[in-house]
Design a protein that fits this description.
Layout (H helix, E strand, L loop, with lengths): L3 H12 L10 H13 L4 H36 L23 H33 L14
């Protein structure tokens, strides 16, 4: 039988991921500290702690992959008008608002995907917190299970 203390700890594990807005790497440190301190006391807390940490590691991995795809497109778009042999090449750089580069569209599209992913991450964290408050188990979507 779950008591309110276990539900509260599991809820705070999920909500502690928001500490990243105040503390660098708080989305890892907060849940990790709460999970390590309470994982032996309750299977419910242990399951929620693993889910929260796995989700944060998965989000970090997805962000790194998206960044590795986006950054080359941005750099190619930035240096598209440069001729590295000609010293006066900076005079030939111009921004065209009427005909932007297709690479700019790709980079913008990936940026929109990143923004949508951020909003979905916030929604999933709130849903997991509410499930923990109600005493239900929650499995984050698209999560890689690093901790089993």
């Amino acid at each position: 039988m779950l008591d309110n203390h276990q539900k509260n700890i599991a809820t705070f594990i999920h909500l502690s991921t928001f500490s990243r807005f105040i503390i660098p790497l708080g989305n890892f440190i907060g849940p990790l500290i709460l999970w390590i301190a309470n994982k032996d006391k309750s299977e419910f807390v242990d399951a929620h702690g693993k889910q929260a940490i796995n989700f944060q590691i998965s989000i970090l991995l997805y962000a790194i992959i998206l960044g590795m795809i986006t950054i080359p497109f941005f750099i190619f778009n930035l240096f598209n008008g440069l001729d590295f042999i000609n010293i006066d090449s900076f005079d030939s750089i111009h921004l065209s608002l009427t005909k932007p580069s297709p690479l700019l569209y790709i980079t913008g599209g990936l940026g929109i995907i990143a923004f949508i992913g951020f909003i979905l991450e916030l929604v999933f964290i709130v849903k997991a917190s509410l499930a923990a408050k109600d005493g239900d188990y929650y499995k984050y979507p698209l999560t890689i299970n690093f901790l089993k």
